[in-house]
Amino acid sequence: MSIALEQHQVEIEANLRAWQGKPLLREIYAGFYQRILAQIDVPVPGHIVEIGSGVGNLKAHLPQSISTDLFPNPWLDVVCDGYELPFADGSLSHLILFDVFHHLRAPGAFFREARRALHPRGRVIVFDPYISLASWPVYGLLHHEPVAINAPINFATELPRPRDYYAAQGNATRLFFRDEKPGWPEGWEIFHREAFSAFHYVLCGGFSKPAMYPAGMLGALRKLDAVLSACPRLFAARCLVGLRPMN
C-alpha cells in the first residue's frame, strides 16, 4: 500500500470520529443526501452502489445501497475502485459518487466501466465541490486537496494499475458546467445539473475544523444559501449532476 493510500485510510478514520462527534455535520449531510435521493429513479432494476463510501454515511438514508471503498472497513459491503466494478453487466441501477468524482484521475475510464455495469436506464449521480468566485479561496486555501482548475485532465478511457492517489477539486465544475470538453462524456446524457450555495456547509468546518456558527443558525443559513444559489458562478460551493447512458 502506498503512503498516499495509507493516508487515505487515516483520513477515513479521522472522518469517522468527526462524524460521530458533530451533530451539526450530520444534519447538513442529511440535506445533501436528500438532494441525491431526489435523483434516484426507483423503477430501474438493479443494485444501487456508492463508490468511495468513506465512513458509509449514505446508508442511513438509503439502506439498500451497497457501500464500497478501497479499503476493508466494518461498515462497507465491497472493496473495489470505480475502474473495475465487481458487478455483472447491466446489474446496477445507480452509481453514486459523493465527493469522489474529483478523485478520478481518468474519469472517462470510470464512465466506460459504469456503462458496462449499469442497466440501460441506469444513472450516475455525482455530488462534488463547485468552484465559484466565493468558494475558490475556501477550497484552495482551507482544504488540503488541490483545486487544479487549470491542470490537464486525463481523458483516457482506461487507467491501468497501479493507480495512485489523485485529487482535483475543480474537475466537476470544468467538465459539467464550463464544458471544457464539449460532448463529454461521450454517449451520456446529463439529465440534471445544478450548482448551489453552501455557506451552511463551508462555515460548519467540515470534518476537520470547528464550526463557525451554533447549530441553531443552520436554518437561517440554509435560507440565505437558497437566495444566493440564484448566482452560482458567484456563490456556489457544491454541485449535483445526474447522467444516464444514451441508447
Q: How would you summarize the topology of this molecule?
A:
Elements: H1 3-21, H2 23-37, E1 47-51, E2 66-69, E3 78-79, E4 92-98, H3 107-117, E5 118-129, H4 135-142, H5 171-177, E6 188-197, H6 199-202, H7 218-228, H8 232-235, E7 236-245
Parallel strand pairs: 1-2, 1-4, 2-3, 4-5
Antiparallel strand pairs: 5-7, 6-7
Morphology call: globular
User: What is the CATH class?
Assistant: Alpha Beta
Task: Output the strand order for the largest sheet.
Answer: 3-2-1-4-5-7-6
The CATH topology is Rossmann fold
- CATH-scheme architecture: 3-Layer(aba) Sandwich
- What's the total count of β strands? 7
CATH superfamily label: Vaccinia Virus protein VP39
Sheet/helix structural class: alpha/beta
Largest beta-sheet details: 7 strands, mixed
Indicate the low-confidence ranges by residue numbers: none
The secondary-structure element order is HHEEEEHEHHEHHHE
Mean pLDDT: 94
Radius of gyration: 17 Å
Instruction: Kindly estimate the percentage of residues that lie in beta strands according to DSSP.
Output: 15-25%
